[in-house]
Amino acid sequence: MNSRLKEIADEILTHDRIVIVSHVRPDGDTLSCAYAMKEMLKNKGKSVLCVCHERVSERLSFLCDEPILLPGEIPSDFGQTLVLTLDVASTSMLGDCASLLTGVRSIKIDHHNGHDAYADVNYTEEKTAACAEIIYDVAEYWDCMTDKVCDLLYAGISFDTGCFKHSNVTQQTHLKAAYLVSRGVNTNRINKLLFDEKTLSEIEGLKLTYNLLTFFRNGRIALVCIDNEMKKQYGLTDDDLADTSQIPIEVKGVMLGITIKEKSGESGVYKISMRSRQGVDASAICNKLNGGGHTCAAGGSIKASSREEAIQKVIAAAGEV
């Protein structure tokens, strides 16, 4: 653990009322970090709330010992002295939680590419596979490795590495996971909940995704685009489509896999998720699409008048890079 992260960890403990913020469309890493940090801080005698722009999907709710709050649900008398964002690369990923940064001390801890220094203190370790790896260092420094914290940190690391199969995995990733396993983490249960259990509606979402696969650039780009009309036609929710981002890149020969989904309730707003193989910088493409992320996994957002226009804009950005 480097001296700067130690300084940040020391500063966090000078605050008594802390709001921890996760990114929009909360995933397993941001939630694991938030609730692990909450557990550690509560054990240090702090008052802590976990907040997000939107609710947690039923599939990931097992990571939360109590429901996450929306910004408007923070008690008026809570009087937070620190806002701590975990795994939130940019202000665009804060949603309505961006307003929480006004008039209060803020700290950002993240592991994505890019340098959106939106907080008072900004700390990023781009070489870590998951933000949970950074929170692991904090837990070790604070001597807070309880069984519950170990479970959550393992879940965050496993989620953001695709159960340790993505290219972002390092020796340190395995060493930290190995320690957590040595502490008795039930890896079978956690990985089944994260990756293996699907509802019938999620299966329908996967079927639709495979049927919509389209190829560009001589098969080097695979793309899926799902608009709100399709969701309505097939009776699908955003949660039903949560596992589709990895599908396009799984096709042999594809260098860039793209999933585009129109945002429910916001006609004309399309969310983009990209996965790439070595040699293709997904984050550089998503930087052109109001987003960013990692070299091999990134996301963005655009406005388009139709599904076809959304596809054209994304393919054009990919072509530039």
Characterise this structure:
The protein starts with a helix and ends with a helix. The model has no long low-confidence stretch (mean pLDDT 94). It is globular, with a radius of gyration of 19 Å. It has helices spanning 3-12, 28-43, 131-142, 147-160, 171-182, 187-196, 200-212, 228-234, 282-287, 307-320; strands spanning 17-21, 47-51, 82-86, 105-110, 121-124, 214-216, 221-226, 256-262, 269-276, 292-293, 297-303. 36% of the residues lie in helices and 18% in strands. It folds into two domains: 3-196, inorganic pyrophosphatase (n-terminal core), CATH 3.90.1640; 200-320, Diaminopimelate Epimerase, Chain A, domain 1 (Roll).
Alpha-carbon distance between the two ends:
35 Å
The CATH homologous superfamily of the largest domain: inorganic pyrophosphatase (n-terminal core)
Q: What spatial order of strands do you see in the largest sheet?
A: 6-7-8-9-11-10
Indicate the structural class.
Answer: alpha/beta
Rg over C-alpha atoms, rounded to the nearest angstrom: 19 Å
Percent of sequence in beta strands: 15-25%
CATH top level of the largest domain is Alpha Beta
Main sheet summary: 6 strands, mixed
Give the H and E element order: HEHEEEEHHHHHEEHEEHEEH
CATH topology of the largest domain, what is it called? inorganic pyrophosphatase (n-terminal core)
What's the structural blueprint in terms of helices and strands?
Layout: H1 3-12, E1 17-21, H2 28-43, E2 47-51, E3 82-86, E4 105-110, E5 121-124, H3 131-142, H4 147-160, H5 171-182, H6 187-196, H7 200-212, E6 214-216, E7 221-226, H8 228-234, E8 256-262, E9 269-276, H9 282-287, E10 292-293, E11 297-303, H10 307-320
Parallel strand pairs: 1-2, 1-3, 3-4, 4-5, 7-8
Antiparallel strand pairs: 6-7, 8-9, 9-11, 10-11
Helix pairs in contact: 2-3, 2-4, 3-4, 4-5, 4-6
